[in-house]
């Protein structure tokens, strides 16, 4: 990530409003670069929030909506940190049981989740529009999978 990328942010348009995300390349340079790249490619446009659990998080970034797919890019090496904590508004990279399997999926925290600290990569945080994230349709059951999920209308890169 170049010095000019350090201040780049993401603009995520949802049906209820616009969410502004500050990336954290200081914590996760590989993951931040991945979100920038995929946003610039339009990868996230019209992708669903397929897994949404009340009081926990909203997960998206899988065009299939199943939670099992990602981009064609290679998986990322884990960038876990204990320098920052998973709290409301934080963006984390979703992964399988393999710590080095993050690809395109991410999640936005509805609440604090210290049990994720040091186990998942923190890649950014919502700095505006969390009230719109709060309105994302919730899933049912223990896994939080959503029928007819809300979608990201468009995700793009902005400079600040």
UniProtKB/TrEMBL annotation:
What name is this protein filed under? Peptidyl-prolyl cis-trans isomerase
Its taxonomic placement starts with: Bacteria, Pseudomonadati, Pseudomonadota, Alphaproteobacteria, Acetobacterales
Query: What Gene Ontology terms for biological process does this UniProt record contain?
Result: protein folding
**Function per UniProt:** PPIases accelerate the folding of proteins. It catalyzes the cis-trans isomerization of proline imidic peptide bonds in oligopeptides.
- Family in the record: Belongs to the cyclophilin-type PPIase family.
Q: What EC number(s) does this enzyme carry? A: 5.2.1.8
Do the record's keywords include Isomerase?
yes
Transmembrane annotation, as ranges:
none
Boundaries of each PPIase cyclophilin-type domain copy?
17-160
Q: Which GO terms describe its molecular function?
A: peptidyl-prolyl cis-trans isomerase activity
Sorted alphabetically, which SUPFAM superfamilies does this protein's record hold? Cyclophilin-like
Which keywords are on file for this protein?
Isomerase, Rotamase
- Kindly report, in one word, the top-level EC class recorded for this enzyme: isomerase
Catalysis performed (reactions): [protein]-peptidylproline (omega=180) = [protein]-peptidylproline (omega=0)
């Amino acid at each position: 990530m170049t010095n000019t990328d350090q201040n780049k942010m993401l603009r995520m348009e949802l049906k209820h409003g616009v969410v502004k995300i500050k990336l954290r390349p200081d914590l996760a340079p590989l993951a931040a670069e991945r979100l920038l790249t995929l946003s610039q490619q339009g990868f996230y446009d019209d992708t669903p929030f397929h897994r949404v659990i009340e009081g926990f998080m909203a997960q998206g970034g899988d065009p299939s909506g199943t939670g099992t797919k990602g981009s064609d890019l290679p998986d990322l090496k884990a960038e876990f940190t204990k320098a920052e904590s998973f709290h409301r508004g934080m963006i984390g990279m979703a992964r399988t049981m393999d710590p080095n399997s993050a690809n395109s999926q991410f999640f936005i925290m509805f609440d604090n989740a210290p049990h994720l600290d040091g186990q998942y990569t923190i890649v950014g945080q919502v700095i505006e529009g969390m009230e719109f994230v709060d309105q994302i349709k919730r899933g049912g059951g223990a896994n939080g999978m959503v029928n007819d999920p809300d979608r990201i209308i468009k995700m793009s890169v902005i400079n600040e």
